[in-house]
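Fold this complex.
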Amino acid sequence: MTVATHARSVTADPSAEGGAPVVLDNLVRTFGATRALDGFSLDIAPGEFVALLGPSGCGKTTALRVLAGFEQPDSGRVMVRGGDVSAVPAQRRDMGMVFQSYSLFPNMTARDNVAFGLQLRRQRSQARRARAGELLELVGLSDHSMKYPHQLSGGQQQRVALARALAIEPQVLLLDEPLSALDAKVRAELRDQIRALQQRLAITTVFVTHDQEEALSMADRVCVMSNGRAEQVATPSVLYAQPSTAFVAEFVGVSSRLNVARSTRGVNLFGSDAPVRGDVHAIPHGDLDALVRPEDVSATVAGDGLGIVTHRSFLGGTTRLDVGYAGATIKVDVRSSEADAFELGTRVTLGLNARDVLVTGRRPAS
Amino acid sequence: MASLVADNIVEFEPPTTPSRSPRRHRIRLGRGLILLVAAAYFLLPIYAALHFSLQDNNGNFSLQPITAIPSQPGLGSAFFLSMRLAIVTMAITMLLMVPTMIYVHLKLPRFRRVMEVITILPIVIPPIVLILGVLQAAPGWLKASPYLLSLVYVILAMPFVYRSLDAGLGALDVKTLVEASRSLGAGWVATIWRIIVPNLRSALLSATVLTLALVLGEFTMASLDLWSTLPVWIVAFDQTNAHVSTAVAMLSLLATWLLLTLIVTLDRSTSRQQRRKRTS
Amino acid sequence: MLPFLLYVVLGLGIPTLVIINLAFRSASGHLTMSNINTITSGGQYLTGFETSLKLALVTSVIPGVLGTLIAYAVSTSRFETLRRIVATASGVLANFGGVNLAFMFVATIGFVGLVTGWLARIGLNPWSHGFSLYKFWGVALVYMYFQIPLMVLVITPALNGLRPAWREAAENLGASKWRFWRHVGMPVLTPSILASMFLLFGSGFSAYATTEALTGGTIALTPIQIGEFLQGNVISGEEHIGYALGFGMIVLVLISVIAYVTLQRRSAKWLR
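Structure:
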């Protein structure tokens, strides 16, 4: 089930067919009382793989559908290659879309499904079949080309859907949670294949998902969305290490939240003066919360420690401790080989590994 | 043949295509036209019949056909005959089908396939043909009683009743319910009566009402078996006073329609409830 | 289990066997093909079959198309109440009893019907142009009243099974509305539509009550002829003709039902 390593007629030049720059400019879309998109903007470079990540209802699917032309925005523009395509109907936008599930035409074989777009563009049947064959080989399904959708597994169906979308050599590839309906093992395999394919073809790709693991492992850049707006757009590592808002810090990866007081350099965290990312004075009034990641906190056994271990989770190489501290629960990762020292009830002292801490306004007690 | 249809309930799901372009208006006009013409075709005859039943013999508006109903010869006995047949049919059907279907759902799940096929058979043998065979095959003493019709009506009702009960039982997890009930100490009869039947209420109601509607409207077999049930009376009386006949026909239609609407709404609300319960 | 099977055997099996048996027997009890021959070799019985088949065909194809259009029009409408009304209505109308329906139509377009009167006033009285409610096309018109809702009822699950993702995928790949229907929509729907038409065919072929109440037995249709036979209008030498007619009906309806079930199963695979 590996992706073919040779691709004859497929280009790798990012400025040619596959890689079109896309700009979503201040899109607004309301459904009744809800604002699905609230001034959403995003710039995508040619050949870039961008993931739209967020919880359900954040607007990511709406954004994708506006880009595809299935929804009309109330205001804002969609630009492809510098041209405004907002008025162009979906069937002429030249984008390939892979849907969540069950989108293959049931009355056609895999090969005919893939060739459908070409048939519409009046390619001759021999050329169509050859091209469809190539694409099916690319996704590793040439043996299944004469099968009907109901004879294929979920993972196979999605690979055919991918081949079908790529057959028309679109300017942009759109994927709407294509892996959510598949089981875990198939999901992981397909993830790698999609990414490998995308990189070889250097096609601009927008991938919608609610699964952060997918987004972080596949994308060049991730756009975290919430309530119809972009919270942060950055590469996966920057997103993880330097979340710019509390939402991102808590949605991507694990964060612990605790009340802190202002101090000289920033805030008072675990008894020491911790530097803060950005300017703590930018939040001039009110109390502050700090958000820290488990791997950034260290725990040392100490009889007079202010923290108490309340829970342990074995995660393989690391063990995650829940430490009760100053009324909050801080998650701390320790090496499993050293975890024996941290029985439940052990008193510990917490410290911060040198990293700027994200600070946010204090969340009212729920 | 309508009984062959899987659900008597049809669910139209909301459309998902975007509804925002100029050519949509043209499509909407065409669609509206189709529906308008259809509505006219279906509503006109009802109106015409009502109009006709509220006329006296000179063609003027009059409530006379309605008020004359109680005094028409033969109508009372025809109506009561139909009702008696309906009650007997419903009783036999329930006693026969409910235990059988519970048994099949519990012990012989594979038999459901066979039952599906069996319940298609009454469709294959149309009523007109069935009565042909029944009249020939039935013994004389049975033919002398109107309840022969009831016995045959049970066969006619079978497809409806089967599908109704099958859907109802399928939505319950009968096996688990029975095991839970038995493990708590209840015997078979108690289990069926107190646990299963109450949960089948809407399916049972639906089956009962459909059977009732069937019997009250059944003309073919009753007329050829020479019994004066309500529909048979209506046709016969048409020679005497068409207005009264039509009035009676419309009344029985109204009753049937009310009953059927009742189960359709009941069915939909309980199935929605059950769906909600399952997704929580 | 046993009581049920027993009942079915007694109530359904035995009458059927009796019919099949008597279809092939002469009045004196000998095995013979003469009954079958009589009905298939011309004359009123063959005409009856032909007319019945023609009626069933007309009232399955036309309502088939109209029913599909109506079902489609309703399922793509945005009005929730409309959908609900039509759903209820089709469930009720498809089960309409024959007698009531006949009376309604007599009141509407019979010789002194309401609509007849309206049309006469503008000079378009159908009766004076050769139309008769009690002949073929009149009966067909009445049949449509329950055949169309039946079609709506049967085809709607299939229409609902058309996934929006297909339409969007086709659009995304560049297909216009027509091309979608031509390449995907119609091919997927066709087995269901055909299956439903077979169902309608069986229904139109077997109907008795409506026609009898309407025409009083004056039209040459097979079910009516069976009715006449049961009412004692038998010619000597053709004592068992009714059974042969019944046998013929069973065969034809059986073919219909088998076609329906087969096509339905195939389309179910696609419209999961």
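The radius of gyration of chain B is 23 Å.
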